[in-house]
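Entry type: protein chain
Record version: 2
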Amino acid sequence: MSVRGLWRLLAGTWRIALTDIESGNRNASTNAFGRQRGVFTFFHNETGRLFSNMSQIDTMHDEHILSRINSPEDLKELQLNDLETLAEEIRGLILQTVSERGGHLASSLGVVELTIAMLKVFSPPKDRIVFDVGHQAYTYKILTGRRDLFRTLRTKGGIAGFPKRCENACDFFDVGHAGNAISAAAGLAQARCFSGENHKVVAVVGDGSLTCGVSYEGLNQAGAADKDLIIILNDNEMSISPNVGAMAAYLNRIMTGQIVTRFRDEIKNILKNIPGAMGRSMYGMAKQFEEALKGFIVPGKLFEDLGFRYVGPIDGHKIKHLVDTFQNVKRFREPVLVHTITRKGKGYPHAEEDPSRFHGIGPFDVETGKEHKTEDLPTYTTVFGQTMVKLAAADPKIVAITAAMEYGTGLAEFAKVFPKRFFDVGIAEQHGVIFAAGLALEGYRPVVAIYSTFVQRGFDHLIHDVCMQHAPVVFAMDRAGVVGEDGPTHHGVFDIAFTRNIPHLTVMAPSDLDELADLLATALALGTPCAIRYPRSTGPTPPAKAEPSFLPVGKGRLLVDGSDLLILAVGSMVGPALEASTALAAEGISACVIDARFVKPLDRDLILDKASQARTVLTVEEGVLAGGFGGAVLELIADEGLDRVRVMRMGIPDTFVEHGTRTELLDHLGLTAHGIADNARGLLERPAVSKLRRIR
């Protein structure tokens, strides 16, 4: 048979297969075509139907479908119209709860239908479902037995804002940072092979996680391993796929159907079995034709080249299309990537119009979308952003870098005023650190603004690419200390411990808003690697200085002199230490208070002088005790031979702090004025230290 004859045979057979499948899906396909007016139509669907009358959003009543859903199995018998009604009810519950508690709203509203369809087809806890970027999991929590607990979201003692294995049997991996789902799912799939079980493993990836390098490491290994694994790509930014609509959905259902899948595999076997070079040539040509056609219709060649069967893009808000596709790919025994397109904030106009602001938001008014503000004082984040703009106006060498946190780090105004000097590298902290090092070594002054918890991701490069090369990069570590409702994945409590041990790195912590501006100006003037940590909170007092000033490096500030006790505080703990000193003074206890300002280098002369006078030292920090600021003070005192000085350290114990408000957590940890005063009293009541004798 000639090559032309083979192509005619293939084309004719494809037409027969498509006709057979189309005849079974004609009604659904016709309806789908009728509902769509173009590939972008779904982005302009009505969004106000659920929330056209905000006053009607109320608690879930017994007659609602959601009240009958206690596990994923309860979804199996629901019809399509029931599932669509369920989606509306879930959106109402999420919106009402987040408006009261705060949380990740836009992303959660965007995956309601996707999650419903997924749980309609898959069955956790038998099937393993892992979420990347855990704030996509609100609907999943509601439908996996936590509906009645959902109103406790992110409250102390309530359910977490992210998946947690200890919370529910359907949560298979703790997540809060981006980029781990594909690798985790690959591990779960390999474990399934070892154990000989037959459940499905699904990774739900979204919110920019494919800008995270580790996601591609996972794709590379998972594709090569050729295991039964399903990755659902929740593309909510139109980053790689404008091809959405009825035609794309229709083609997907056909391309994943049993007849076409079986036909394609049979053709592959036929061509491979033709002896000699002709068989190999014909198989290669057929494969190239298929890839060229798929590359023209859908943007999946990258994933196909990585070893995944690509399915998509499909409308992530069409439950029937999603269910049909998931049912088809569930039969596959190879790596599959299902590409869905969703809209952040779906169903709530305020979140649709401004998804960045509603990505993570505090309590807000549902009708207006405005946050409830309880304090008028500016935050550390705000003052950092304002100072960056002020300093950059005077120095054209200053550039700002962040990792998908333009608004969260306070750099939105900088990006607006200096767009060519602002770089958002996406969820790629490692790259951001190295990128900054390259800029710094060419004479520029990069400031890398990343939450403390995410700086952990760039730790190796902080050592190898910045400090080892003396690259003058400034790290602005926002959200240092406990951050509140986001919980253990987001508390920035480790940065002192992992920065103070790195050579050439200066580590600073401001006690108020003016000091933050001063330390930022100081860091930029030094010409050496620097890190500044500051909390997620308002300042203790409004800024008083018009311009920041340079502070002497490694010098603390004596705030209150005293003879009975030395309280050495750093950063956010300076304010409570001062309050504790006042309370102790009322009891006749003379407490000296020092604002350390610098974790590294310590103010050696000031600390040794006051410690030798008081002989009783209490260190206070909003960070882990192991390797922290208190440890640095102990090392200094030990190295200098002050063997008659008693030292107590206050900070975060050797545990992961759970979620709650920042105030609740600090109170629980004793990091308050009351807690400091109590520890000071207890320390003073201890017997005096006798001189240690060497054991022979």
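Comment: The first strand starts at residue 128 and ends at 131.
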